[in-house]
Write a structure and sequence with these properties.
The protein is α/β, with parallel strands linked by helices and 366 residues long. The protein contains 13 helices and 13 strands. β12 and β13 form a beta hairpin. It is globular and about 65 Å long.
Length: 366
């Protein structure tokens, strides 16, 4: 018995390379792009383990949970790590980066998350990249959540290691990811005796056996279904136009913030300033007398398909996350989330104005 998921012709090296080229066009980069056969944590960890060693001095920016993870990996590699932590309701600034680099001029590696979907903030990478480039450090960026929702431009911003995933704003699969790598990042990896080799984490294996070989022979059997899904989501973005896709995400974020402000009931944006708010997810602070996870459970009871979640860990009491990315970056999704949250607040005895929330969201949508 044939099956459309199972009886597919092999995915050859030429098609694999062509998909990489489409990712490079999405990022407007001339750097090498490697598609890695796993969720984005694979290249995120692989890049740090390839570039960091006991001689590395890193500035690790923490604006959410992923920044904390990167610091752990860097220390595990033997690097000296200076953490720059900012409150999760805001973003880091280029001035804060400049001050940290001035205080520790020996820093040669900077790690940063572009958009933190978990906390709802986004960082001004273009401005930060200019500061890092002036200092001369290697710049590592997690753009997994931001790509497709806001500009991601490794070349223009001086990013040496830029990791993306398709499962959020791109609206694609979670099982493959990609990384763009600058020439000086490859040189740093090649000079690191501790960089993974003959390992699933190894980027140098892809460099030496795939890129240097002219992309003629794959290292191993590709994740075919995920690669085809990645190709399909790239085609969809190209057909719609990247600017159009980013506009949808921006409008969804603005509409949620405006709708919540008009809804009442004590909800308010967790990220104070709209300029610091990520276009992929809007985080909300609940009234002190309520528990966020319980409010989310009430909201989801009526419609479990809504992209609502409580914050992770300690944030589960105070934070709600509205994940308006990919297929959920629509006006309809925003309205449904506002209605569900309003109903949950009303059930807890709070006064809400659903009609006002709907009007405000519509006015904010451009």
């Amino acid at each position: 018995m044939t099956h459309p998921f199972l009886d597919l012709p092999p995915l050859d090296a030429g098609r694999f390379a062509a998909i990489e080229d489409r990712v490079a066009r999405l990022l407007d980069t001339r750097q090498d792009v490697v598609i890695t056969q796993g969720e984005a944590l694979l290249p995120l960890e692989g890049a740090i383990r390839a570039a960091a060693s006991p001689g590395t001095v890193a500035l690790n920016v923490i604006t959410g949970p992923y920044g904390q993870t990167f610091g752990d990996w860097l220390r595990d590699c033997g690097a000296t790590v200076h953490d720059l932590s900012v409150p999760f309701h805001t973003a880091v600034t280029a001035e804060q980066i400049r001050a940290a680099l001035a205080e520790h001029p020996e820093i040669d590696f900077v790690s940063l998350v572009h958009a933190e979907a978990a906390t709802g903030n986004t960082n001004p990478v273009a401005e930060i990249g200019e500061v890092v480039r002036e200092h001369g450090a290697l710049f590592y960026l997690d753009a997994v959540a931001s790509v497709g929702a806001e500009p991601v431009l490794p070349d223009a911003w001086g990013v040496d290691l830029c990791v993306i995933g398709a499962q959020k704003a791109m609206g694609g699969p979670a099982g493959v990811s990609a990384i763009s790598v600058s020439e000086r990042a490859w040189a740093r990896m090649a000079a690191n005796p501790n960089a993974p080799r003959r390992s699933y984490l190894s980027l140098l294996d892809w460099k030496e056996r795939w890129i240097d070989g002219g992309r003629k022979a794959l290292l191993h059997a590709p994740a075919q279904l995920e690669m085809l899904a990645l190709e399909a989501c790239l085609e969809r973005i190209e057909a719609a136009g990247l600017e159009t896709v980013m506009d949808r995400h921006r409008d969804a974020a603005l509409a949620v913030r405006a709708g919540v402000a008009a809804l009442g009931g004590g909800l308010e944006p967790y990220v104070y300033e709209a300029r610091d708010a990520a276009p992929v997810a809007t985080t909300l602070r609940v009234p002190s007398e309520l528990v966020a996870s319980e409010l989310v459970a009430l909201a989801l009871a009526g419609d479990p398909t809504l992209p609502l979640a409580a914050g992770g860990g300690a944030l589960a009491k105070e934070m709600i996350r509205v994940n308006h990315y990919g297929a959920d970056a629509t006006s309809d999704t925003v309205h449904r989330c506002l209605a569900a949250l309003g109903a949950a607040l009303a059930e807890r005895g709070l006064t809400v104005d659903l009609a006002a929330a709907r009007r405000a969201a519509d006015e904010a949508w451009h």
